[in-house]
Each structure stands twice: as C-alpha cells, then as structure tokens.
Amino acid sequence: MIHAGRRLQAQLVSLSAWRGAQPVTAPLCCAHSSAAAPQDVPLAPLAEADVPIRAELPAATGRIDLILGPMFAGKTSELLRRIQVHEAAGRRVAVVKSDKDDRYHRSRLVTHDGQARECFATATLAQLRERLGAAYHDIDVFAIDEAQFFPDLLAFCTAAADSHAKHLLLAGLDGDFRRQRFGQVLDVLPLADTVTKLAARCAYCGTPALFSLRIAADARQEVVGGADKYAPVCRRHYAALETRLRLGPIPPAPAAGT
Ligand SMILES: [Zn+2]
C-alpha cells in the first residue's frame, strides 16, 4: 500500500514533468486568480509549493454570494436578512437596486411582504461607483438586488471582489419567463463563493416553484411587475405554459404548512 503523502508527491512530480508540454489548470483562490489571469503573471510551479509566489497579492480578498430563484421566492427578504447580519457585525453595507425597479418605491428596497430599507437606485454599477466617489473604498459589502438588470454586473463584481476586497451579496433571477439566461447573473456564477437557489410556491398547486410564469401578454424580456404580471410555478405547471389559458385563474395562495 502506497502512503498517501508519497502518492501525492508522485502525482505532483508527474504533473510537473507533464506541464512542460501541456497547459495546466489548477484551482485558485480569489487572490491568486485575479493576480494570474488579467496580467498573465506566472505563478510558482505547482510541484514547488515552497517557492515564494512572485505575483503581488492583495492584502485582503473579496467574496461573492449569489441568491437565485424565481419571482416570489423570498430573494430580497434573504438579502435583507444577510444585510442585517453584516451590519450587526459592524460592516458598512451599500444596498443597491436598479432604477428600473420602481414597483414599490424609487429609492427603497421593498420586499413583496412589505419589509423595506433605503438604498441606492442606479442604472449601472459604474454610475454608482462614480456617484460614491472616494466613499466606495469605505464600503465593505455591496448588497445588490435584481442583479439581472445591471448590464455591467460582471465587470463590477470582478473588480470589486478580486481587486478591492469587497463582499458582494447578489440577489437575482437566474432565468427569465422563458427560462433563458437573464442579464449577466449566470456569468457571475463561476466567480461566486456560494450559490443559494430559493424556490417559491406554485400559484396553482403550492409545491415548490422554480420558474416565473408571465401571465401578462408581453413578449419583451424586461417587464417589471408583480403578481399582476407574474406567477411562480412548478415544473409541471410551467410545462403546461402553452395551454395556460386552460389552467384557469390563479387560486388563492395555499395556507402555510399545507
Ligand atoms: Zn404547480
């Protein structure tokens, strides 16, 4: 039986010999990834872990947590809960929403069940950064709601987490009413530390709902609305989308616990 340490050493030697001819990929932390990728800074060979890393590393590193799910899944409520945890720990949090989302209030983040707090409403995250000026550097956490609406989400998150040690909390739709990608949310997925997918309750049967069914006749991808335009549905009821008129009106929400 080969000792585990010997076996690992043998693998590293083999990898070291092989990497001369083939590109090598290896899991990297946020700091090493950002140090290596944009500037093509060479990292120390994998088999020589005791060799000092030549790339200059940032003193601290950022983090990205994604909260995904259909409409009415409680994404904004979960975002607010996490914001409270950070603020209780003394971190400075900037709460951000798209200025396209004016369903409840222009500059307040409001959940479907009525929780609310003040926030920045902006068209792009670059504009927010410009608006904040030097204050950007004082913020520890950016909590961004309806992340699918920001056209520069990926660029902002990459710079904020990799280079500026910001913690990003993102809540957004992973798919539109056709279950297609929506904005840049899925582009951030490979950068995320954690991904939480929440479910709503199907408006028709009360089982877990993964999808947002548009019940208003409108083919555009971005149509901001609430229960007047969308209903959360399970896979079975989504599959009946083409015959949705035969489903009849949405019944009252099932009682909790049923
Ligand atoms: Zn259903």
Automatic annotation (TrEMBL):
GO biological process, one term: DNA biosynthetic process
GO molecular function: ATP binding; metal ion binding; thymidine kinase activity
Reaction(s) this enzyme catalyzes, per UniProt: thymidine + ATP = dTMP + ADP + H(+)
Pfam families per record: TK (PF00265)
EC number in record: 2.7.1.21
InterPro entries: P-loop_NTPase (IPR027417), Thymidine_kinase (IPR001267), Thymidine_kinase_CS (IPR020633)
Protein keywords: ATP-binding, DNA synthesis, Kinase, Metal-binding, Nucleotide-binding, Transferase, Zinc
Protein family membership: Belongs to the thymidine kinase family.
Protein name listed in UniProt: Thymidine kinase
